[in-house]
Amino acid sequence: MTFFEQHATKLFMVMNYLSSISIVFLNKWAYTYGFPSITLTLIHFLVTFLGLKVCAWLEVFTPKKVNIMAVLPLALAFCGFVVFTNLSLTYNTVGFYQLAKTMTTPVIVSIQMLFYGNTFSRAIIGSLLVVCFGVGLVTKADVSVNPLGLFFAACGVLVTSFYQIWVKTKQVDLETNAFQLLYYQAPLSAAMLAVIVPLLEDPFDPETGLFGHSWPKEAVVAATASAVMAFAVNLSIFLVIGKTSPVTYNVLGHFKLCTVIVGGFLVFQDPLNFNQGVGIAVALLGIFVYTHFKLKEASQKTSPLPVKA
Length: 309
Known about the structure:
Helix content: over 70%
Radius of gyration: 20 Å
Distance between the termini: 31 Å
Number of helices: 11
Largest sheet: none
Order of helices and strands: HHHHHHHHHHH
Strand content: under 5%
Number of strands: 0
């Protein structure tokens, strides 16, 4: 076994961590110029597809013929995630929006237990509760809610949960690797977003439209850098979930959130209060405990059975 094969999962997680942190700050840079968010996501997937085309040309992977209808739910779930999370942010306070996203972890666990027959030990569930509690403290702010905002937030959490679960199950069911599955999902999602964008973000709007506004050079650089980084983000999502599980990827996401908040405090001088500091510490403790028990479970699965004399 080569070094890469032995440490592939760790390398994929590092790739996802670094690229995800980078894209948050690149997106924030682009948004300071008013760049439309859903339009930027559409550009992300177009660039991701182009990146996969280059990888296929370089023989990094071999595209596999897959039934488009089998990948369609995955693409629809992603578009639902983009639309509902944006609507949730529009109709809710930032505090409630962030708090709702925390519910993705228990929803994924519930779906996997109810519909996929997965089981989780008490130690794993306990550590996940600690993580969610810590993230809840981190995101605690103005959490006032309204019925429409609650509906959009609930839909966002639900489709996000199914998207992450299907990233795993589709790779297994269709017998594809991360590259092969994303090769189909990226252009499908881009095509769907191309239909959605005119309804939510007028591309010819003189103030915020992609084609109607004269964007400064800095905005173009930020959007371009974000799109290139999105290739690494999208690919690493499929790689990490394919090698681990949706729950583990979600825990990694909470770790990234803590890092983004600390990074925002250090780089952008974003406010960081005492409760958030405690929440970050609690979340990191939960992540450490979760990792400990997952590694313990993995070692037990791979340990050779005792030989009877």
